[in-house]
Amino acid sequence: TYGGGAKDGGDPDGWKAVRIANGIAESGADYQLGDAFPHDVLLDETGGVGFKKGCYIGQEVVSRMQHRGTARRRVLIASADGPLPASGTELTVAGRPVGALGSVGGRTGLAIARIDRVKAALDAGEAILAGEVPVTLAIPAWAKFSFPEGAASAEEA
To answer: Which domain holds residue 91?
Structure first.
C-alpha cells in the first residue's frame, strides 16, 4: 500500500474525525449517492469531477452548476456547545428545513445545507437548530465557495 505503515482496518474513528475537521463528506455516512449532486459534496472543489471528460449521466446539470455557480447545497462544518444529535437530524431555521447533519463526532459534525438559507439566517441573526441543539455552520477553510450575497430568507426559499 501507499505510505508503508497502513494497517488493515485502520482507525475508523480517527478517519471520521479528520473528515469532519476538514469538511470531507463520504458517501453512505453523509449522503446517499442518488441524493446528491457532485457540487453538493464538494467534489468540484476536491478534483472529484472531470469537467473535460466525455459524456456522463447528469453532465448537463453538473456542467451548468459549475459554469453558472448555481450550487445551492454544500458541505459545511457544524459545531455546537454540547454534543450534536445523530446523523440525519434535520437542520432548521424558524421551523423550516435548511439541511441535515451527516457524520457527527461529539460537538462537531458535517452538514449538507442550502447555503442561501444558511446565509439568510446568519444575516438575520436567526438560530440554526439541529433538532433542539443550536449549531454554528462554517465553510471548510480550504473551500473556494462562499455564502451567496443577497440570499433569500429561509421562508422565501
So the answer is: 12-138
